[in-house]
């Protein structure tokens, strides 16, 4: 079969020369290397510079290749090989799936593929901590529940345990925890693990929550966080700390507050605060970064206030199964389940595990852009919370609607209203992409907003679109904007088409679509109606159809 050869080697593409017959050991190691990264494809019979030179005669029969690879890897790696004709030479394309966990050669060699500083790939040894990190990202092990080597009960700080109890009261956590003594509390929250000899040893969760700072430095050297304030490229605040997590959250919020001014909005008899950054979203974003970071990787959690955004980043990419396309709807998949569960029971983060919703709500309810995760990579999660000026009129409308409902607006509804503010007109399909659900769910959201009087629907077919309602535009004093977005009436469309024909002699369907900003089906119906009323006369057929003035024009 004929295939196009990739232009160069990448993280997921490997070229291997076969002029001198590539040894089976090197082939197996190259395939393992790909599997332990993102998977991909190995092109056998292609030089490093991308020049196809063909397969060695002993590799021309590919039927037994998959079996050989499975027999020499553990667990067995299932690859697919196919012959590809490139010009006058034949090469092999070997597809490699991403390993769910880790794969080794039967000789016990663990390798992974990575990109060097210049963007070219290389194959390197997979070190023990990297294997553990990969396993935790796939949910195969919970590092946060494991005892920490060398740790003892003396590494736990009684003052931090008291801070934990106060946090349960402050955040409205599980009050049953307040009735437990220290040993029972440690066991209930997996702060310690019982050993076979009956002794208790602190877990990673225990050290991170109630460990002494000196012990954390020694026993968990990857734990570090920073708060930075950058104003017009000048550094106004830049400090790194290694506090236990509850103390860390208090310290970060205390230092952030002076840089988070707020104004007040009068809504009826109530005053509604409008901060630069919603504190609920701030707490959730920072807590998520500290909880879900990869504690096998060196690097600090950064909380950085820039001129136009608050940026929160943490080492370790998204866990397996979580992508930017399903962030809002996927089931919670914490990298450190024991730590995440403990923080939920204390009340620091959402008990439902839907903290991302809280972050989105914290921005959208003020009329600000949605949180931006687009800078996230395989090495780190990067979240940007825009700090643009709030839309006070929009905030007032949200507050009034939520008071009318006696409940918060669903997050999908907030996303829909924000999208309509930005795009002016929206279809169910366009909203489905933003809320990461199907078109049926998106339509249900838009119809609910229509029934609430916040949105107006236009059209009754699949081309149905939505705009903000006249009452919303009137409430913000922009009646003209509503008229613009409502668009032209059918009568106006007819007059525009007839005027065009008078000026230019004829018109085609594509020209009607462009002139009146209609879909193909809408333009077709408009032309058919004018033809039936004899105000236009049709000439030509199908794609060649055109229309001239009729006897009744």
Walk me through this protein's architecture.
The protein has 553 residues and is of the alpha+beta class. The chain has four domains: 13-126, Methyltransferase, Cobalt-precorrin-4 Transmethylase, Domain 2 (2-Layer Sandwich); 139-387, Heat Shock Protein 90 (2-Layer Sandwich); 410-484, Arc Repressor Mutant, subunit A (Orthogonal Bundle); 490-549, Arc Repressor Mutant, subunit A (Orthogonal Bundle), CATH 1.10.10.10. It is 38% helix and 20% strand. It is built from 20 helices and 22 strands. A five-stranded mixed sheet has the order 12-11-15-16-17, covered by helices on one side. Strands 1-2-5-4 form a four-stranded mixed sheet. A three-stranded antiparallel sheet has the order 18-20-19, sandwiched between helices. It comes from Azotobacter beijerinckii. It holds the Pfam family HATPase_c_4. Residues 9-113 form the Schlafen AlbA-2 domain.
